[in-house]
Design brief:
It contains eleven helices and eight strands. The strands form two sheets. The chain has a five-stranded parallel β-sheet, with helices on both faces. A hairpin with a 2-residue loop joins strand 7 and strand 8. The protein is of the alpha/beta class and about 280 residues long. It is globular. Helix 2 packs across helix 4, helix 7 crosses helix 8 and helix 10 packs antiparallel against helix 11. It binds pantoate. Pantoate binds next to strand 1 and helix 7. The site of pantoate (PAF) has 10 residues, from strand 1 and helix 7.
């Protein structure tokens, strides 16, 4: 367990000097099976798996949202160790941000100006800023991110490419519970009725993906189909349902190539996101 940035950087550098490879799994804590799958993969592919646990205030749209975020460091450490982590880096707010950052990462263009960039202004900039800090602290590594936060994954890939971090980004598939709900720390905030309603996101995505694969639909029709499925669930309020080009996040004219279907919705007071990929030859 490491709390200090200097200690983390020195420990990982020492391991690299001894020819060990480092796997980094950045998290906000409240770890679940999805995180466990990232840590297991990092531990399998690297000599050392390091999990960072930090509730990054820059990526929440209000202090209340950050305060409501679930936490439980003791349970997180148990899960991380069981999944194969060697190091847990859990810095304090003062350690990560000794002063409010005057220079952060800002995402330009379509990548930051669509979907989560519209619904949660500043969120992706806050993610990119803290991930840039973690990459600078960790040094050369493989970094593991879940596809559940698909736009975040694209942002992190651009961050590495644009700022030349010595990091290989590894995308890992979304882990789902038996009823299709994507694992998320936010699921803990759902009442049992809300949890019962949550599978509608996955149902909408699967119906949308089937329509794309069946052919003959326009992007707007597929989006409408997904929106109608979500609208039929009274406890769920849709934010967006779209089908976009998987690399650019632009709505394509025709449904061909690598596509991504994404939905975001409020389930009671909790905002959930989910997505699936489809390839049309
Ligand atoms: O996906 C998350 O848990 C967070 O956005 C991340 C990447 C750890 C940055 O705080």
């Amino acid at each position: 367990m490491i709390e200090r940035v200097a200690e983390l950087s020195a420990a990982l550098e020492a391991r690299r000097a001894a020819a060990s490879t480092v796997g980094l799994v950045p998290t906000l804590g409240a770890l679940h099976d999805g995180h466990a799958s990232l840590i297991e993969r990092a531990a399998a592919e690297c000599d050392l798996a390091c999990v960072s646990i930090f509730v990054n205030p820059l990526q929440f749209t209000s202090a209340a949202e950050a305060a409501a975020y679930p936490s439980g460091l003791d349970a997180d450490v148990v899960l991380a160790e069981k999944a194969g982590a060697t190091v847990v880096f859990a810095p304090t707010l003062e350690e990560m941000y000794p002063q409010p950052p005057a220079v952060g990462v800002q995402i330009a263009g379509q990548l930051g100006a669509t979907l989560e960039g519209v619904s949660r202004p500043g969120h992706l900039d806050g993610v990119a800023t803290v991930v840039a800090k973690l990459f600078a602290m960790a040094g050369r590594c493989r970094a593991y991110f879940g596809e559940k936060d698909y736009q975040q994954l694209l942002v992190v890939r651009r961050l590495v490419a644009d700022l030349s971090f010595p990091v290989t980004v590894v995308a890992c598939p979304t882990v789902r519970s038996i009823d299709g709900v994507a694992e998320s720390s936010r699921n803990r905030q759902l009442s049992s009725a809300e949890r019962g309603a949550a599978p509608v996101l996955c149902r909408a995505l699967r119906a949308g993906a089937a329509a794309v694969l069946a052919g003959g639909s326009e992007p707007g029709e597929v989006a409408g189909l997904m929106a109608d499925i979500v609208a039929a669930e009274p406890l769920v309020e849709l934010d967006y349902a779209v089908v976009v080009d998987a690399a650019s996040l632009v709505v394509p004219e025709r449904l061909v190539g690598e596509l991504r279907l994404l939905v975001a919705a409020r389930v009671g007071g909790t905002r959930l996101i989910d997505n699936v990929g489809v390839r049309v030859a």
